[in-house]
């Protein structure tokens, strides 16, 4: 099926006879595969008598060779999947099976993509980026302080390099464009953080998606913002480079060395917000973050800091 997709990926018309010859199958077998593509992957295909078959829009698949071609500096080996439950889940399985870090897990589609607090992450086939980087951490809790915020900065700079304007960060793990979500981050840890552990840096970026019914909040995509089709292999390469730079700074100076840069990119800096923790709600004004990446709020005139994976930040109605 992937071979058929590659043949159709140029967005041009291809006759059933030519496709069958390239695949070594009959025209009826090509027709069955095309029906499967439409049904399983939700890929619209134009069928015109006398001209053949054409994808509704051009499609390029993730390929390690193409990522290497676009890369500068260190290259992380990549495990690329047609369809899996989630890249983070596959990364955790690979760690358990002894895969040596660092390595990437990429997928064309996820059947159970997820964000923070168990939320579903929309994962249409070959339109967005579903990316997990696995790192080994040898001792030193300092290496984990503010790590998700560091990843956010790296994603932000990668998006800006493609011309995505008005992009900013929302504590702790969202990347927004004009208050519309364009990317999210989910970190997962396995092992002993005081000794040897692995951290999975899960990143989801809306790349070329133009429409979906699977998202329950305002969203946008790189394609929507720039008006062009983004090369996802090039995006992986640029994201890798950006992460290598920021992770290197984090190792050298800790999160404190990046604190000011992160605050400058925080779109809700100085805004009145509500911090949701389970059934509890805390109203305050965003003062910034501390050297460990915790959120600093002015609550009834008193500065308080908050951190934790189950916290959610929302703008207040009076903002």
Strand order, largest beta sheet: 3-4-5-9-8-7-6
Strand content: 25-35%
Question: The biggest beta sheet, please?
Answer: 7 strands, mixed
Within CATH, the superfamily of the largest domain carries the name: Bira Bifunctional Protein, Domain 2
Q: Quickly name the level 1 CATH class of the largest domain.
A: Alpha Beta
Into which percent range does the helicity of residues fall? Answer: 25-40%
The H/E string reads: HHHEEHEHEEHEEEEHHHEEEEE
- From the helix content, strand content and strand pairing, which structural class follows? alpha+beta
Number of H- or I-type helical stretches: 9
Measure the end-to-end span. Answer: 51 Å
The number of domains is 3
The gyration radius over C-alpha positions equals 21 Å
Description:
- By secondary structure, this protein is an alpha+beta fold.
- It has three domains: 2-55, Orthogonal Bundle (Arc Repressor Mutant, subunit A); 64-263, Bira Bifunctional Protein, Domain 2 (BirA Bifunctional Protein, domain 2, 2-Layer Sandwich), CATH 3.30.930.10; 268-315, SH3 type barrels (Roll), CATH 2.30.30.
- It is built from nine helices and 14 strands.
- Strands 3-4-5-9-8-7-6 form a seven-stranded mixed sheet, sandwiched between helices. A five-stranded antiparallel sheet has the order 13-12-11-10-14, with no helix packed on it. It has a two-stranded antiparallel ribbon with strand order 1-2.
- β11 and β12 (295-299) form a beta hairpin.
- The model has no long low-confidence stretch (mean pLDDT 89).
């Amino acid at each position: 099926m992937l071979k058929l997709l590659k043949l159709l990926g140029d967005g041009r018309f291809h006759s059933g006879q030519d496709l069958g010859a390239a695949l070594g199958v009959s025209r009826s077998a090509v027709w069955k595969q095309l029906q499967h593509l439409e049904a399983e992957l939700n890929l619209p295909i134009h069928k015109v008598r006398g001209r053949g078959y054409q994808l509704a829009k051009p499609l390029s698949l993730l390929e390690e060779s193409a990522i290497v071609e676009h890369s500068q500096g260190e290259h992380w080996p990549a495990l690329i999947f047609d369809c899996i439950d989630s890249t983070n889940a596959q990364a955790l399985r690979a760690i358990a099976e002894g895969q040596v870090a660092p390595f990437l897990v990429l997928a064309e589609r996820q059947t159970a993509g997820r964000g923070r607090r168990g939320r579903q992450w929309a994962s249409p086939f070959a339109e967005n980026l579903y990316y997990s980087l696995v790192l080994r951490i040898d001792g030193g809790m300092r290496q984990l302080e503010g790590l998700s915020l560091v990843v956010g900065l790296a994603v932000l700079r990668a998006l800006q390099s493609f011309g995505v304007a008005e992009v900013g960060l929302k504590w702790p793990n969202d990347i927004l464009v004009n208050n519309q979500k364009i990317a999210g981050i989910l970190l997962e840890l396995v092992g002993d953080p005081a000794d040897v552990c692995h951290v999975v840096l899960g990143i989801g970026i809306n790349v070329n998606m133009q429409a979906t019914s699977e998202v329950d909040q305002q969203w946008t995509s790189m394609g929507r913002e720039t008006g062009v089709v983004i090369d996802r292999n090039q995006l992986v390469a640029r994201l890798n480079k950006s992460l290598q730079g920021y992770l290197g700074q984090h190792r050298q100076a800790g999160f404190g060395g990046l604190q000011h840069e992160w605050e400058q990119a925080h779109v809700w800096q100085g805004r009145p917000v509500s911090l949701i923790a389970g059934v509890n709600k805390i109203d305050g004004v965003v003062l910034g973050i501390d050297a460990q990446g915790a959120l600093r709020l002015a609550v009834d005139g008193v500065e308080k800091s908050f951190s934790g994976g189950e916290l959610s930040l929302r703008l207040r109605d009076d903002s």
